[in-house]
Predict the structure.
Amino acid sequence: MQGCARGQLDMEGALTARDRVGIQDFVLLDAHTSETAFLDNLKKRFSENLIYTYIGTLLVSVNPYKELDIYSKKQMDIYMGVNFFELPPHIFALADNAYHTMLAEANNHFILISGESGAGKTEASKKILQYYAVSCPSTTLLDNVRDRMLLSNPVLEAFGNSKTLKNDNSSRFGKYMDIQFDIQGDAVGGHILGYLLEKSRVVHQNHGERNFHIFYQLVKGGEEDLLHQLGLESNCQHYSYLVQGECANVASINDKNDWKTVRNALSVIDFDERDIQDLLGVIASVLHLGNVQFEPDSKGYATLNNSAELLWVSTLLGVNVQVLQEGLTSRKIEAKTDEVLSPFTVDHAIYARDALAKAIYGRTFTWLVNKINDSMENKDSSRKTVIGLLDIYGFEVFYVNSFEQFCINYCNEKLQQLFIQLTLKSEQEEYEAENIGWEPVQFFNNKIICDLVEEKHRGIISVLDEECLRPGEATDLTFLERLEEKLDSHPHFVTHKLADKKTRKTLERGNFRLLHYAGEVTYCVVGFLSKNNDLLYRNIKDVMRQSKNTIVRECFASKESDGRRRPETVASQFKSSLLGLTDILMSKEPWYVRCLKSNESQQPGQFDDVLVRHQVKYLGLMEHLRVRRAGFAYRCRYDVFLQRYKPLCPATWPYWRGVAAEGVEVLVQHLGYLPDEYKMGRTKIFIRHPRTLFATEDAFEVCKHDLASRIQAQYKAYWQKGQFRRQKEAATKIETCWRGVQARKAKGRRQWAVKVIKKFIKGYMARGEAKTTDNSEYLAFVRQNYLNRLKDNLPKMVLDKTSWLTPPPVLMETSEILRQLHMRLMVRKYIRGITAQQKAQLQLKGITSVIFKGKKDSYPQSVSQPYVDTRISEQDINMKVLQMIRHEGIKYSIPIVKYDRNGFKARPRQLILTQTAAYVVDDAKIKQRVLYTTLKGVSVSTLSDGIIIFHIPSEDDKQKGDLIMQCDHLFEALTKLSVVANKQSAINVVQGSVKFQMKAGKEGIVEFSSGQESMVYKDKNGHLMVVSTRTRAR
Ligand SMILES: Nc1ncnc2c1ncn2[C@@H]1O[C@H](COP(=O)(O)OP(=O)(O)O)[C@@H](O)[C@H]1O
Ligand SMILES: [Mg+2]
């Protein structure tokens, strides 16, 4: 049975219940009777965005008022088919568990979602539906059903939800939806039961509240054409039914977008264009109706003052405008055989108008639910199981509470009663089934309040109905008096009159107060009678029955108006529908979601301790926990328990080969459980305290690690060995292959080398022949080789004529061309590098060469000796001499030795060449001035001496005869002279001897010879003998 599955889940819950934030399952709370500990746990989890916590299989949900990323497809996948307690608490876990239990046990279930208004019930039910839509197996055919189920939601919310002070999307009707599954678990159909729509909202809204969403959606989102067709304007302020709460626009609601969703959904759930047109016609007609105003005529009766709006109503509903007007301003009274029209006062007319609006809307809503049911209906008759989702309006307390709150809160009392019965029942049943003694639990049973409301003859509903039905002047106040009479000593009922002094101050006269299980609520009796009666005059019903609008016609076509009997009152209808619901639920297995509001102001992240504590209290969560903990905190099927913990005992590990219960007994004995700590049921072990299980679980954790590491080690070793072997094999294989590759490469290289060498030898042998295939490569090699070598060994100097590499025969010609090119290049480079000074020097050397080359022995040695500008600087010339000759421009000076003409005595002198003359100077004296014009010739010998002889004409008296000098820089001095005096042609190189003029008419001879030692002396024959050392060659 289901109980067994639960037990197993509880056990596993323990596994994940710790270690996270707080405790995931209150059953595991050690201080399970402490409300503070309970709240602390909720709060701790809430602060970490963990909004779900279990009490066993009951899910507590705290509204976070913010989007949490826990409802994605991924999340759904995580929860799909996983055991309830293996994952953190979640609405999906509950949905999944209900589903799988349903499949396993093939029975019906329901999920009761409760909590006060705004606590998150509707959201929870949507999440569950989405979960089934995604997780159940499906076919395309079923997708259709599924889409309709999902899309019925926005439509029903549009028509049945509205903004209240508690919730911007408050459900103003109760909804029970069966989801039908076939035996494979496919969702194959659905069915919705609607409960008591709060119709009064159509005509009246409190401040800060709105009418039903659909009105705003249509007015704000409707396309221009559509609005035009319906006679509407795109402005909510225009409609008196929309503006009473003064909040047509709400930040959290996007009416335009919602309109699109609803419009699209309508098409999906089988509404054809006609239906949609009729439906919107109804909505629009209600809006127009709200704008119909009355004025009193002279007799005080109501007349219409705005026929345009009425005209729209009549058009949209397809009724005769006259008849409609009549229906709104008068009623038919049957007097015996006649029918008489009784006109209304203005107030009465307004009442009739609002009654009509409420009736049309209310009935249309019922029609809508039926229509949706048609579209979701599964028509085949195969066996199905269902999961029912109950999302009904939550317990509600406003500043002023009226008939609607009375009904809503009564409904919540009923559900609480159901909850108590079912929980206690199931818990007790389990104990009985397991043969374990039941210890009764103290809890508040709200049956007394249910009775207060619904008991026949005494209950509030009975009194109300009596007041409504009795003849005579019944009013809301007479109803209150009746209540006071009947219930004067009821502990949960108080009025001003019945209250003690203190309480009386808090109660006004027209109010009564009920002490609900969830708290005190003071109801204002005003309107109770009329709302309960929900009267609509017959003539207006008749009008509606003739409507051309199909929906309206269908809605009013029931037989109710035919009978003369008064229709059932609203409260009675509601009461019986709740009884019906209780029956439906009692026949199914329950699952609970308890929704809590975290704060009153719908703020994310705020946790109002007082508010939550209050809800925990009245929702009976502590009691539920106590029931779950009565006696034993855990229970677990023997086989499951044994399977999990068998490693903890040598006798049960690795296998227990007997009955599971006995194995468990052996196991817990081994673990040292005390007799008081556990009980053995028929199929389960019951453990009294959480700590016992925790200790076992801790031991299991340790043991699990041990086991795991042993298995791991073994496996690792095995794996490593295999790995090593595989690696070794692979290495050998690679090595072999690599060696082969290497060998093949080497062989290739050898073959190639042999070929090259062969070719080389052949080429060498044929190197002299014309180019053939045999020698072409060799010759190319030779060429390249030579050119490469040549490149590195080019001569560096112009004069280097020997180091040019000898070319191979094939390159003779090329080499010669290259050599010449290179030479030219060097010459060019050399010439480019020559300075002006060097150039002048070279020119001088050139002149020297013309005069002396091949003629005088000492010439070759002189070539390399550079010429200088002068050998005596001007400072070294005597000032007097300078003064005398400077104006002529001194060009060159050199020290010389002058030989006297007679005795050939040698005297050191300076020879100074000016622009016009050569001077022989002895310190401050000019010894001789030789004008170039008078210089007849200059003689030098062919040998290597330095003797220079100036021949000067003897006719010139002033002259002392020819000048004989010895100069160390003969070539330099004579070259300078030849340039300055232009005497190149006058210089003679003479062999042997030369004559010279001593003085006019007397001649001397200079004889030149070469010998061991150079010397100059006067010979006995009177000649001047000049001996110079011999040089190798001229
Ligand atoms: N699980 C949730 N996650 C985030 N916000 C939520 C959740 N449940 C409820 N709410 C918020 O609270 C508002 C009221 O929830 P709703 O289900 O309509 O309350 P109820 O049906 O109980 O009156 C929602 O409109 C939404 O803003
Ligand atoms: Mg709701």
In short: Residues 690-765 form the longest helix (76 residues).
